[in-house]
Amino acid sequence: xxxxxxxxxxxxxxYPLGTQAVQAGILMGLGDQIAQNFIDNSKSIDFVxxxxxxxxxxxxxxxxxxxxxxxxxxxxxxxxxxxxxxxVACDQTFFAPSFLAVLLVTIxxxxxxxxxxxKIKMANEYTEILTNNYKLWPMVQLVNFSLVPLHxxxxxxxxxxxxxNSYVSYRTSLDKR
Length: 177
Description:
By secondary structure, the protein is mostly helical.
């Protein structure tokens, strides 16, 4: 187990963006599997959907959150409770709403929706998911930005997001039926 931890830490040090992108892809794919197996109670597993979620984590979520946390750290700072509060305020005011929009549009595209379908998806899902975002993420981010070193912040968020992604996967699959 120690060698696995050491391997992860070396990868994180040498390839921070790539390592965090891969972990986000794995955890988003796992979140979709949780949604399909335990929430949807699907009779058959949609592995294409799982791979799409994993791809979103790999190509969008991991790189975006990692880069965003670096930007916050550079321009706001890295230590102190007032710094953490400022980071949460920026994160929830700027990043969360725009990232959620990108996520929903990307999921809609993966579901084969056209422009009109994407507009309907956004109208039906955005407000509810963003409202639920504000019930969970400010507290998670306050702890994350206060206590967790920058290079582990994406891992913390993606770990909590395992359940969040299960919810998003389930919620965005409702209009497919």
